[in-house]
Structure formats: C-alpha cells, structure tokens
From TrEMBL:
Species the sequence originates in: Streptomyces zaomyceticus
Domain of life of the native organism: Bacteria
Entries under Pfam families matching the protein: Alpha-amylase, Alpha-amylase_C, CBM_48, GlgB_N
Protein name: 1,4-alpha-glucan branching enzyme GlgB
GO molecular function term, any single one: 1,4-alpha-glucan branching enzyme activity
Amino acid sequence: MTARPAGKSARSTTKDPKAPKAPKASKASKDPKAAAPPRQAPPLDPGDRARLLAGEHHDPHGVLGAHPVRGGVVVRVLRPWAKEVTVVSKGRRVPLRDDGDGLFSAFLPLLRKVPAYELSVRYDGPDELAVQDPYRFLPSLGELDLHLIGEGRHEELWTALGSRIMTHGGVSGTRFAVWAPNARGVRVTGDFTHWDGTGLPMRSLGSTGVWELFVPGVGEGALYKYDITRPDGTHTVRADPMARRTECPPNTASIVTESHYTWDDQEWMARRGARPHHEAPLSVYEVHLPSWRPGLTYRQLAEQLPAYVRDLGFTHVELMPVTEHPFGGSWGYQVTGFYAPTARMGTPDDFKFLVDALHAAGIGVLMDWVPAHFPKDDWALAEFDGRPLYEHEDPRRSHHPDWGTLEFDYGRKEVRNFLVANAVYWCQEFHIDGLRVDAVASMLYLDYSREHGEWLPNEFGGRENLDAVAFLQEMNATVYRRCPGIVTFAEESTAWDGVTRATDQVGPGGFGGLGFGMKWNMGWMHDSLEYVQKEPVHRKYHHHEMTFSMVYAYSENYILPISHDEVVHGKRALVSKMPGDWWQQRANHRAYLGFMWAHPGKQLLYMGQEFAQGAEWSADHGPDWWLLDPAYGAEPDHRGVRDLVRDLNTVYQATPSLWERDTAPEGFQWVVGDAAEDNVFAFLRFDAFGSPLLAVSNFSPVVRHDYRLGVPESVVAWAEVLNTDAGRYGGGDVVGRDPVKTESVPYHGRTSSVRMTLPPLATVWLRPA
C-alpha cells in the first residue's frame, strides 16, 4: 500500500455529530471561498493513462499537475490508494473527482494561469495530509548540467545525478535524477511510498537519457530505488548508481543523504603536494578496514588506527575498497555502490571523520579503486535499464572470465564520465590522497584471460583496449588537475610501456603515457618471494631473481608491494613462506623486509605482516592480535619483528638516500650483485647530494666474517644504523657496534673496501660514520 506522502497534517474534516447546525446561508450570503462541486475535466487520453499506470510515460509532468486550458485550469493527480484528493489554493478547496486507478481530476474555471496550490489527501481514516504536488515544479537540473552530461564531461557528476536534498521553488524536498537512456519509463520508489512507485513517475530530459523528479517533503534518511520499465515492457527495481549512501548489506536500498561534516585538515591539504611523491618518503600500510579490528566503526577506528600507523612510522595507509559491495568475502573488489562508502562501519560523514583523524596524525590516505569491473547483481548496474549500459553490449568485451563480473564499456562517453567523476569524487569530497587502481592489466588487454576466438581485436587488429587507454589517461589527467597533491597507483602486472609516463608523451609503442604517478612492481614481488621461499642451499641457483628487478627499475616509478594478495588463498603469510625452523623463518622475514626497504622504490606491507603473523589473513577475523599479548609465550618474537618495522620506517624517513632518487639510475650502484655462492647482495643508495647508504643482505644461515666489500674511497668509516639480526628484534645479535674503517684495498672494481661481519639471514644498513 502506498504510504501517505510526507507533509504537515491538515485539520480533520470529520464533523462532530453533537455540534449545533449552522443556519442555512442564502445564495447572496454564501462564502465565495467555500468548497464548490467539482467541474468535470476533459477526459485523459487513454494512451497517456495507460502509459502512466504502466510506468512508461516519458513526460508525466505534461499530463499530471495543473495546466491552463480554455476557460480555466485542469488539475490531474496520481495518488494510488487515496480516498479523496482536494486542491487547496488561497484558502479555496476544490475536491477532485476520482477517475479510478489512483487518478483524480478537476476543472478550475475562470483562471487564466496556474495558481499556487497544494493538495490535501485523505487515505484510510478521517485525517487529511497537506502535501505539495511534485508535478507543479519545473526541472531542477539546469541546461549546463544536461549539456555536460550529454558531452560526457561533467566532472562533478554526483552533484547532478543521484538524490540531492534541495529547496526548489521555495519548497524543500529531494531531487532524483538517473541516467537510463534505454528505459521506456522510470519511477521513484521508496519507504516514503511503501515501495510502490506508481505515483512517482519521472520525466525524461531530452536526448541525454536522464530522468528527473523533484519530490517535496522527502528528506535525509529516506530509502529509495528506481522502478525502471525495460524496453520489453518488464520492470526492474534498481539501486541508484550515484547513491552516496546505502543500506548496510545484505540490504540494498539507496539512502538520501547530505554531508554535515566540517573538515579540520586544511594544513594537511595545503602541504600534501609540496614534494613530488616519487622524490619523497612513502611507506604504506595496507588495511582491510572491516577486519583490522573487527566490529569497530569508522569513528572507533579513528581512535586506534592513526595512532598505530603513526607509531610504526608509515607515511600512508592504503584502504582496501571502502566503496559499497554486497559480498564481504570479495574484500570490496566487486563494487555495487561506486559513490558510497560501505555502510558496514558507519555513514559517509563517519568515514570523513576517519580520514580527517589520519590526516591529523600526519598519515596520507590511499584508497583502492576498482574501475575494471562490477558484479552482475540484478539490483545494481548489470543491464541497468534493460539493455547493456555500463557494460559493453558484446559479451566478448563485457564478461570478465576470471571473476564472473562485467567490464565497463570505456568507449561510451557517459560510462567514462561516471568513472572519471567517481575518481574526482573520492579525492575531492573525502580528501583521499591517492587512488590505487585495481586490475589495470585486465583493462588494457582485450585478450586478457581469453583464448583465441574469445575476444575482439581493436580497430587496428591489435589486442590493446584503446578505449581503456583513453579512459585511464583522462582519469589521471583530470584528478591531477582538479586535486593538487594526489597520487595515483596502477596495479599493472605486465610490461605495458609508459604506465607512469605523462599522457602527452608518446612512447615507442605509439601510445601516450597512462599518466599514473606510480606502478606496483609485481615482477619484483613475484621474483623476490620466489627467491626467499627457497632453502638457502638452493638460493644460489635463483640469485638472479633478486637482481633482475634492477634491469628495469627505472622504466617506471615503482612501489614494492607485499599486499593482501600474497597472504591468502594458500599462499601463506609472509613469515610462513620462509624455510627453516621458527627462528630461521623470522630471520628470513626480517632480512627480506630490510632488503625491501633499501631497494629502489617505495614500499607497501599488508596488515599482520608487520608482526610476523603466521596464519593466512582471513577477512572474517582479521590479524591475529593475540600474538602481541604479553601473556603469550612467543609474544617477544612477534613484537621484535614489529619493532624492526618501526625502525625501518624511522631510519628510512630520516635517510634521503633511500627515497630521494628512487627513480634516477644515479641513485643506485651495485657493490656486489653476483655473489650467488654466498647468497649476498650489497648495493649503495645515494641522495641528491651524493651522500650514500650501504645495504648488505646475507640470505645464508651462516655468519660471514671479514667479508670484504668495495666502497667509495670518500667515506672514511661506516657505522651500522640498522641490523635485522639485532637481539631486540629477536635475532642472534651479531651486530657491529663500532664503525667499520675503509681500507685502501681495491675490491669490486673500487679503490677502497671494508671488511665486516655479516650476520646470518640478515640485512645491515650502514651510513658514513
């Protein structure tokens, strides 16, 4: 049953049977404003009537509402389940005739123009409701909005489409607007209509494919969806693609919302782009928010997460997709609400509170963003208006073979606009500092995970998805232009040329750069993990897997990721990948982190790996925090690894040679890269002024005494600044407490060298003493 529309309650018209009867008035004394019997309106065209009731009318405002005709004004109202409807104008009440099926009409004579009016509606019971008529309002979307939508260039699309609380024509309510160009009709339905959309058909705004309706009296917190009539006449009820707030899964309704949050991070926003990210320290802690501390809200997380990350010295957090998603087991990578933070932990303003708290702690916020695909849920984007809309119409271009999802049609300007504006939205409205774009390789290649005959080549016969290339270039160019200080990251697993090259610089393949700020170095991740999982006796045969990354290290701006993908699905946690007994596993773990932090490129570590959690991560219960409980016998082992991560970040940030020239070849020199028999790697890092840091990793389980390494003769002595074998980290404490003096002994092609003791399964950093 349709709910009574929101509005102030009119005075009951029920008469008191005990009240004295008023004297009968003569014709001359009758009040001219008294109710008059309704005049018959011209009959409604049968086609219009049928289309209205079927939800197929493209212009309900042309039929409903008040319209001047010869001799007066006709008023027509569609109010399903109403018993009586009355027009009230300047104190005059005119009852409408019940035309059946929820349609009411009246003829108001002697009026030359439509007067200001409202409706008084009675449902079951004696009381009447005073409400505004949605069909007396002009469109609430301007010509500029419609022009930009039609061009696919509305960079603040969320301000035009979706639901928006506003005052229109002096009346407060909510404007609903949705893009559904294939629909025969669209209606708004929600808790304010008891989920019967019959009475709220939307109008089509020209050739843009946008449908719009301003509904008076609907405000914040209202639940809604769109009842869409498909081209074949069937109906589908869909959540709003532009919803900025949603119900908590498994519920799927969109929620009318507006922000009341006041930001307090002006200083952070002003200085966040002061230094290019590839020339600045950047150390990322990757977090799956729902499971970091299961059960915490955004505001409760704001009390714990910033302090924890700041204590460990990370410069940024990367949040696994916070956009709304129906299945928690997807970790947020199958998105249904691209403009809504997941409701699992609170409201959009609550999420802003968390971002603000992280900024107050000096921590940047990166967000995983998923423009590669979307799930097939029948209440979301898939065949949204009855035909492929957000996805490509050819299944060979739309169906993702790996994840059972649908790929976006990047060649459609409105779809590109939806995604580009979405990237801007998160950076602009939620002060996100960077976007990590998921599954870029699956976007770039038409034959990604497809066999011969299962994919369509591009117009030149190639396998490159030219539409996706253009979209990524547009997205990067737009967010960098509109949101100073942000950075974008590409999770791109192939050797695509120019991922982090400027979009206006054409490479040897004929493509302009994609315009990303950084790229995940998936090759380094796979190669290095392959190496450290080997028993030390076998590592000499895989030595090149640790050195190969330097062959291409400067082809892009890289970040080195040990992400959630590497600690699930049978891959084991990082420490559990390591060979040997528990002591050796932790030693390998620490040595690997020391090598990673010293290697050219920024670094990312997934939660739980900072304290050597042995079990695979589970989205259901999150990190094993009990390992850090002092009552647990092995707690010092795990706390020691976490202390190492803190010191790695502390020394890293204080040492420009480890980050200032990450993308410049002159910032790195091998000391020895071919000591395969020893399982040793040694290299130098240099800052912009030439000041060096010496990093030495010994991936064998034996102490190497008097190990000679060639070093620059300009450095007289070297002092350890970090040793992963230190006792406080759980190591054997084979540390160099005194500086190592440089000797005039040629070695490794240099005129000078040092002799030092290399601890087993450890990485040592040394700086000029």
